[in-house]
Amino acid sequence: MTVRSYLAKFQPELPADDSEIRSMAAAAWHRRRGLFITTKDLERMRPGDRETIERVGARLSGRRSD
Questions:
Q1: DSSP assignment letter at 42
Q2: Would residue 52 count as lying in a domain?
Q3: Which of 1, 17, 28, 44 is deepest in the core (most CB within 10 A)?
Q4: pTM to 2 decimals?
């Protein structure tokens, strides 16, 4: 049985695919100067760069629970 909340209509739709996520990340960078890095982005980075990004993310947002 699924119970739906009356607030469900206010929930945003999730991006459908990687290209839409990349587009949202680019918009965040250009419009708000925000940086959005996916796990796929991290996998493509050099190990030193990846560690730096992970340290900055942990400092700003707390450690991830993988």
A1: H
A2: yes
A3: 28
A4: 0.59
Structure tokens, 38 = 């996916």
Residue 45: how many other CB atoms lie within 10 Å: 14
Residue with tokens 């493509």: 44
- Our count of domains for the chain comes to 1
Please tell me the total number of residues recorded for the chain in this structure: 66
Q: Between these two residues, 49 and 12, which has the higher pLDDT value? A: 49
Structure tokens at 33: 């100067």
What is the domain range of residue 30? 16-61
Whether 39 is in a domain gets the answer: yes
Give the C-alpha separation, 56 to 62, whole Å.
9
